[in-house]
Amino acid sequence: MEISEEVVVVGGGIAGLATALALKRVGIEALVLERSPELRTTGAALTLFPNAWLALKALGVVHKLTSIYSPLKKTGKGPIAVHRRVLLETLARELAPETIRFSSKLTSIRTVAMDDEFSSSVAIISLHDGMTIRAKVLIGCDGVHSVVARWLGLKAPVNSGRSGIRSLAVYPDGHGFNHEVCQFVDQGKRGAYVPLNDKEFYWFLTYTSTLQDEKIAADPKLLQKNVTENLAKDFPPSFLDVVQHSDLATLTWAEPKFRYPWDLICGHVCKGNITVAGDAMHPMTPDLGQGGCSALEDAVVLGRQLAKSLLPNPNERGQIVAVEAARAIQGYVKERR
């Protein structure tokens, strides 16, 4: 079976859903291919800084989150921590149900060149279930191990030498802490807890990786014990108390990867009408706190740039001129670099 789409977005995470929404806001319908059978709501929470809230305002959803979450500074202008699940669901609800095609694993990409001076092309995408999709624009929002980034020729991300543990902590009767970030730094370690509401915290610990990390990564109870009895044993009691209240279902370990800046500056971030966004473009270590924020920015810039590629006839709203889309993609890459 073969179908044709104006835009195909690979990946239904923050970057993918935000990109589809940004395109919808300018009149372009996109198809999002998500390999999982449902929204991937793991990841506990994330802290969104002012740049992310500007992007969410442009996407038209900022009020739906600020009605739930409060700034972490009394000025009302500080960062705000949100549940990753709530952010994803908020973005997804703004899209038509048929926008996201779940259980859709990308297996290969090829292009058919078009006869123009700007090297635009049609992307031919093959899925594991045998479906083929022809797309005027292909955007890879498929994470650190992006298939689209690899196809473009971007070098694989490298290990950061750091490990990260994160979780939600739950106090059913209320935690009683101030609504502010508390951060703790030790030799090679950085931890913090961030209130989400009166009963929940988001906490994380990043540290120099050790040989035993992967051995205990799959056991949340062992991870929790390793934090309280080893990694953060010298941190203040308040941090250890938050860790002890972890919802073990949300406790995860990861070894963050990143892309060298010069790979992004000098590498092939786009070819014709194909590009990447979010972690597929610029994976970051958690110490920056800008992974989700930058993904939201990518989406807004992509939407604004691709709006320039639409046919001028209002009766053909949403129809993309391929050669103009290639120019728009280059504009996006230039701006994001």
Automatic annotation (TrEMBL):
Keywords: Monooxygenase, Oxidoreductase. Residues 7-53 form the FAD dependent oxidoreductase domain. Belongs to the 3-hydroxybenzoate 6-hydroxylase family. This is FAD-binding domain-containing protein. It holds the Pfam family DAO. Residues 92-310 form the FAD-binding domain. InterPro entries: FAD-bd, FAD-dep_OxRdtase, FAD/NAD-bd_sf, MOase. One of its GO terms (molecular function) is FAD binding. SUPFAM superfamilies: FAD/NAD(P)-binding domain. It comes from Protea cynaroides. The keyword Iron-sulfur does not apply.
